[in-house]
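Complex 171.
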Amino acid sequence: MRVLVTGGAGYIGSHTLVELLRQGHEVACVDNYSNGAPEALRRVGELVPEGGLEAHEADIRDTEALDRIFDIFRPQAVIHFAGLKAVGESVEKPVEYYDVNVTGTLSLLRAMDRAGCGRIIFSSSATVYGEPVFLPYTEEHPLAPTSVYGHTKRMAEQILTDWAVARTEAR
Ligand SMILES: NC(=O)c1ccc[n+]([C@@H]2O[C@H](COP(=O)([O-])OP(=O)(O)OC[C@H]3O[C@@H](n4cnc5c(N)ncnc54)[C@H](O)[C@@H]3O)[C@@H](O)[C@H]2O)c1
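Predicted structure with nicotinamide-adenine-dinucleotide bound:
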């Protein structure tokens, strides 16, 4: 399968690239290197030399850049890691966090719609559940984020849910 990984130069994304390439998938990465580095992609290439990773430097909020990448790579699925992730920083920089995590997700979905790509895995966060009300801290918890970061992830989850419903009903 052709899989586009956003935030592939980051911590989780780079490990995911290795696993996807080892499993024989065609993989492309889009990252603006704000918290990742091309060096991580070079190391992915060293670990899976037969992989042939396609790397694109772009910001996910730049839908036109995403359109070009979708035209070139034609992904069948997207794994969406690109985002800002520090709880404390999110309280200090709410506009930046909403812009990258929410606007960025909307921009990605627009590009997916234009390209007819309907499969996405989203890297959300346990922060969407807020304070634990029972243990273990399972996905049965009520959605009650307590930070800007948690709110951005909760919003992105809702957007993805509504997008998936609309796509299913359109079929
Ligand atoms: N690390 C964790 O424990 C954890 C836990 C739960 C959820 N998550 C989520 O998983 C995802 C990946 O986490 P991580 O720890 O690998 O983070 P990370 O910061 O290492 O990786 C994120 C990558 O996204 C890129 N990025 C950021 N903004 C971008 C933009 N506007 N356009 C393009 N690329 C952009 C960064 O350069 C970076 O390479 C994040 O969305 C995070 O919220 C992480």
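The two ends are 22 Å apart (CA to CA).
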